[in-house]
Amino acid sequence: MSTRTVHCVKLDRDAPGLRMPPYPGELGKRVFEHVSQEAWNGWLRHQTILINEYRLTPIEAKDRKFLEQEMEKYFFGGGSDRPAEYVAPSS
């Protein structure tokens, strides 16, 4: 199976794309068409921080809507900020 290549909007370079839309609807389609696997992995890490810091429950409609808005900003807007209270784990 050959790897799809996309011009990634997050990385601003050609990179291997996702194998399938990662999210339903129009946003998932845009991500599939314009986001690389590498950038998607970065979003998943960022999303985990948002979920943990804001104590979100993705099955809750309001929390899912917040995450969708942050995903939109992360890839297609000015970026999604880390929560002000976030402290990176020390290694």
Model description:
It is built from 3 helices and 2 strands; from the N terminus they run ββααα. It has a single domain, classed as Fe(II) trafficking protein YggX (YggX-like). The radius of gyration is 14 Å and the shape is globular. A hairpin with a 4-residue loop joins β1 and β2. With 91 residues, the chain is mainly alpha-helical. It has a two-stranded antiparallel sheet with strand order 1-2. The termini are far apart. The longest helix is centred in the middle third of the chain and has 18 residues.
Rg on CA atoms, Å: 14 Å
Helix-strand pattern? EEHHH
| Number of H/I helices | 3
CATH topology descriptor = YggX-like
Report the CATH C-level class: Mainly Alpha
The main sheet comes to: 2 strands, antiparallel
Strand content: 5-15%
Number of strands: 2
CATH superfamily membership: Fe(II) trafficking protein YggX
Q: Tell me the domain tally.
A: 1
Class from secondary-structure proportions: mainly alpha
- What is the second-level CATH architecture? Orthogonal Bundle
Provide key terms for this protein:
mainly alpha; two-stranded antiparallel sheet; YggX-like; globular; 2 strands; 91 residues
